[in-house]
Amino acid sequence: MDPGYSAQDVARCDLCKTAIAQNYCDFCHVNLCKPCIGEHISDDYSKKHIIVPFQQRRSTLIYPKCTAHRNEDCKYQCKNCNIFVCFECVVSNQHQGHQYSKLEDIFTALKMQIEKDDDELENLILPKYEEIAVDLHSQIASLDGEYEKLTTEMSKLREEMHREVDNAINQMAREIGEIKVKHHSILQKHLDEIKEIQALIQQSQIDLNELKESNKVCFTIQYTSKNAQYSHFPPKLKVTMPEFQPKQIEREKLFRLFGELIPLSTTQEERVFTAKELNTSVRELLDEAEVLNTIKTEYFGLRSVTCLNEEQIWTSGKVAEIECFDMQGVLQKTIQTKSGGMPWDIAVDTTGALLYCDAETRTVYRVKNDQTEEIITLQGWKPANLCVTSSGDLLVTMYSDDETQSKVVRYSGSTVKQTIQFDEGGQPLFSRNGYMKYVGENSRQDICVADYGAGAVVVVNQTGKLRFRYTGHPSPTKNEPFKPRGITTDSQSRYLTSDYDNHCIHILDADGQFLRYIDNCDLTQPYGLFVDSNDTLFVCEYFKRNVKKIRYLK
C-alpha cells in the first residue's frame, strides 16, 4: 500500500499502485484493479491464475496435484492409505472399497480450529503467560524489600538481646556496688573497735608512767595489771570477696534463644488452564431492555452502586453516608465515612467487606463487621475509583495532587503489583485531570476505564498494553458529546458504559465494537453501573436518586 494513504484507506492494486483493487488473484495472492488483470495473467501463463472479486479473496481452495494423474487436483483423502487422491484415483481399482474424506471438509474444520486456537492464544493463553511474567517481575522487584524486612527483624532482635545483656550486667554491677558498701561497713566497724582498745592501752601506758615516778605507797599498792585483758586479742575478721562465676555459653542453646531462620524452599503448583471465556453458551442481547425494579434512595448526587450479594446492594453519593438496601428498596444499614467526606467510589471485596476511597484523605478504607481500617494511604496522589478483580486484586484509578497525571494501580492487599499509566510510545493512556475514572475488568482480564476527561473508554490488556479506545457512536438522536461516567462488564466480556448527557447506556463487545444502546428504560443522567453474577444491570440515576435494576440479556 502506498505510504501516502492512511491505514483506513481502501486496498490498492499491487501492479499500478494507484487504482482501487476490485479483484484478487487467489493463486498468486495479488490485489488487482480491472485494467491490470490482463497484464498479471500474461506475465506467466503457466500459472493457474484464479481471479475473484476482492471481497472473496483467499476463498478459492488450492488443492495439491495428484502424483498419479498429473493434471488432476486431489480433493479427497484416502482414509485407508492416508494419502491425497483425485477423482480418478477414487474410481480406480487401486483404492477399491476404501473410505474417503473430502479435503474441503477437513480444510474447513481445521480453519475453524485454527481460528479458535488463535483466539485462545491471543486472548487467553498469551495473556496468562503475560500475567505470570508480570507476577514474577513483581516478585523479583519486591525481593530487596522482603529480605530487608528479614534483616530488620534480626537487627531488632540483636538490639533487644543487647539491651537484655546490658540490663543483666548493669544489675550485677549494682549488686557488686551494694556488696562493696557492706564489705566496707564491716571492716570499718571492726577498725573502730580496735581503735577504742588502742586508746585504752595508751591511757594505761600514761597511768603506768605516773606510777613509775610516784613514791606514794597508797597509789602504788592499788595498781592492778590489765595486760592479761589486753593480751586477749580480738578475733581476726575474715571477709571473703564476692566472685563472678560466668556460665559456659553453649552456642547451640544460644542460637535457639535467638529464634530459627527457616531456609528457602521451592515448590511447584500445577497451573490449571480453563477456557471459561470461550463458553459456548452465549447470552444474546434483548431487543428491548426492561426495568425489573426501581430502588429509591435519598442521596443527593447518586454516584455508585455495587452488589453485596443477590439480595443486597451498597450505594453512595455526594454525602458522607454509604447505604445498603435490599431488592425491595428497604434500607438495611448505613455506614458513615471515617473522615466525614463523601466516598468517591465503593466496591465489595471477595470476603464481602465494603471498600471505599476518600480523595480528601488520600485513603482507601475497608469496612468489615463495623470495623473500619485503612488499607491504602497515598502520598502525592488521590484515589478516585475502585474495582475488585476476579483474582481478588484491587484496581484503583488515581490522579496526582496537581492534576497533571493519572494512572491505574493494581494492589494485592496493600502491596503495589502493577502501575498502568503510559502506552508503548510513552504517551499518557488517560486524561490528566482529576475527573472520575471508573474502572472495571472483564472475564478476559482486560482492564477498562471510563475516562470522562478524555471522552473515551480506554481498554488495556492485563499487562497494560492498549487494546482500543472507544469515543462514542454516531447517532442522530444523541446530540451531546460522549462523556462516559460509570463502566462495568458482563459474563460475555461486553462493556457497558453510562452516557450521562445523552441519557443512555452504550454496550460494546469485547473488542470495542458498538452493539447497541439501552435508551428505552426512561433513564435520566445515568451514572454508576454494576452488573451482578446473573448479568443483571444496576444503574444509578444521579439527580432522580434511583437505582434501576435492568434486564438486558435473553
CATH topology of the largest domain: Methylamine Dehydrogenase, Chain H
Proportion of residues in helical segments:
25-40%
CATH architecture classification of the largest domain: 7 Propeller
Main beta-sheet annotation: 4 strands, antiparallel
Fourth-tier CATH superfamily name of the largest domain: YVTN repeat-like/Quinoprotein amine dehydrogenase
Provide the structure class: alpha+beta
Q: What is the mean predicted local confidence, pLDDT?
A: 87
Portion of residues in beta strands equals 25-35%
Number of helices: 6
Low-confidence parts: 1-8, 274-280
Question: What overall geometry do the principal axes of the alpha carbons give?
Answer: elongated
Strand order of the largest sheet: 7-30-29-28
Measured between the Cα atoms of the first and last residue, the distance is 44 Å
Instruction: Determine and state the CATH class of the largest domain.
Output: Mainly Beta
- Rg over CA atoms: 46 Å
Number of domains: 2
Number of beta strands: 30
